[in-house]
Write a structure and sequence with these properties.
The chain has no helices and 14 strands. The chain has strands spanning 2-6, 13-17, 26-30, 35-37, 43-44, 49-54, 66-68, 75-86, 93-99, 102-106, 119-130, 135-142, 148-150, 156-163.
Length: 164
C-alpha cells in the first residue's frame, strides 16, 4: 500500500503513502457547435468547451485553437484527436496535429468516403515532448468542392501529461 518517493531533502528514496487528490494533468476539449471548413482551406479547430482542464492548458476565449503547456509541466504528452465530418462523398479529409505551428503528424486522408452512419471520422494519436509555452493545435482541410462541417457531436482533442 505504499509508493517509492524521494525524501523531503531530495537526497534519497523512501517508502511512503501515496499522495491524495487528483493526479490527472491535462485537458479534453470539444466543440459546442459545428465548425464550417471552407473547401481547400487549412483551418484550425477552435475548441470552445472543456470536459477537463487540470493545469490551465486551454482558454475558451483567447487562442481557443491552442493547448499551451503550462509552467512546470515540461515532459511527454499523449495527444488524441477525433474529427467527425458531416456527410459528403466527394474529395478527401485531412487532419494535421501541429506543435508551435509545425505539423508533427497527419491522419490518413479519405478519398470518396462512404456513407456509413451519415458521417466520416478522421483520428490521430501522437506522443510528443513539450516544454512550457509550447502549444498544440488541430488543423483540418477538405476538398469536397464546397463548405463542409466538422460536427460538434463527436469532435474532441485531449492532451495528457505522461511525466517528465
Amino acid at each position: 500500500g505504499q509508493v517509492l518517493k524521494v525524501n523531503s531533502g531530495a537526497t534519497a528514496p523512501e517508502w511512503g503513502a501515496a499522495s491524495s487528490g487528483a493526479t490527472f494533468v491535462g485537458c479534453q476539449l470539444y466543440l459546442t457547435t459545428n465548425q464550417t471548413i471552407s473547401n481547400s482551406t487549412q483551418t484550425n479547430i477552435g475548441w470552445d468547451a472543456e470536459h477537463e482542464d487540470s493545469g490551465g492548458f486551454h482558454n475558451n476565449a483567447t487562442n481557443n485553437s491552442r493547448i499551451t503547456i503550462p509552467s512546470g509541466k515540461d515532459g511527454k504528452y499523449l495527444i488524441n484527436v477525433l474529427i467527425k465530418w458531416n456527410l459528403n462523398t466527394s474529395g478527401r479529409r485531412n487532419l494535421f496535429l501541429q506543435k508551435n505551428g509545425s505539423t508533427m503528424t497527419t491522419a490518413d486522408w479519405l478519398w470518396n468516403p462512404s456513407t456509413v452512419e451519415g458521417y466520416v471520422m478522421t483520428t490521430v494519436s501522437f506522443i510528443s515532448s513539450a516544454v512550457a509555452t509550447d502549444y498544440f493545435e488541430v488543423r483540418v482541410n477538405q476538398n469536397s468542392g464546397g463548405n463542409l462541417d466538422v460536427l460538434a457531436d463527436g469532435a474532441f482533442v485531449n492532451c495528457i501529461y505522461l511525466g517528465a
